[in-house]
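We treat protein structure as text, and this decision shapes the records that our systems exchange. We quote a single record here, exactly as it is kept in our systems:
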Amino acid sequence: MLKKCMGDPSLIIPTEDIGIKDNLPYEEIPVQILDRQVCNLRTKEVALVKVLWRNQFVEEATWEAEEDMKKRYPHLFEPGENPYQGTNSLLSTL
């Protein structure tokens, strides 16, 4: 059974006193392209890449549109490196 909780208004701290800034930007930066796949829709094909972001684990990598990632982060697709180091690429080399 849940009990009724009586809050103490003296414990509430107004945010104006703390000095929280609302305009602090936080942008995730991509670190590596893990995998690539092509998603077939009814009328077109969409190329997707699995992106590993800074401060995230591999399990939290997200699928992003390859075209958008090439526009925003061209350094991830430089020809000197192998940008697709995912499991599919690993299996194709074996």
